[in-house]
């Protein structure tokens, strides 16, 4: 949450010079407070696991957050019951008349397919197009990031020589950016993908915020913060990569373990969890600075914003 102070306090100018957000009294008096409305487009096969991971990160803030989960009506889920979807999820038809402060589009294990070959691609494309006038800021994760860039800008994905799989070091390219407020100079994040996006092919109005020597492009944003693209999986819990290893070791071989994950690369040992603080801070910063501070009080006003019609 921002610090509210008298705008004549000398420390305000010092903090603002370091890009530390301080709300002066005039702005605070004009600000209405309400709950944030977040839509989660959950494309992950283990939907209940993804639900828990994302809710844990969204809850780590003093803001009240209302969360709706969205499923693809054009896709038959194999790892969750229809009763769970009917009870806890909504279809696009049920929410397309509503407005949201933020939206999260998760990853999905379909990256080896062409985008148009994914059975719900048409529906997802419609949702991304709808979000331009109905969502203030969208956070895309892994394949969801690649899908968002392709649907909106035609940015392609490129096959890797081998799967990027493990926990990788990444740098903070702009320490003063609001999404990395409170971060150290570098951090680690899980990645699990067979494809990548080239930084050189991003739209001109994008900024690269995080990069890794091995992971490549990690986090990039549209400069107005309406679109955030994270190519890793900061939301993963301690055992997610272990689940993937146990599931896939018969295919890749038991000796092919995720990089920098198990102590001494020994899959019998408990994995290290060394990205939790970065994940918590990143999601909190997104909610606070990209969503809460700028979204209109009346979400119906979203369609009136000039840049929603660009």
From TrEMBL:
The enzyme's E.C. designation: 2.3.1.31
Signal peptide feature range: none
Keyword Amino-acid biosynthesis: yes
Localisation per UniProt entry: Cytoplasm
Site feature: Important for substrate specificity: 192
Presence of the UniProt keyword Cytoplasm in the record: yes
Site (Important for acyl-CoA specificity): 111
InterPro entries given in the database record: Class_I_gatase-like, HST_MetA, MetA_family
Pathway membership: Amino-acid biosynthesis; L-methionine biosynthesis via de novo pathway; O-acetyl-L-homoserine from L-homoserine: step 1/1
SUPFAM superfamilies the UniProt entry points to: Class I glutamine amidotransferase-like
CC terms in the record's Gene Ontology section: cytoplasm
Family, similarity comment: Belongs to the MetA family.
Protein name: Homoserine O-acetyltransferase
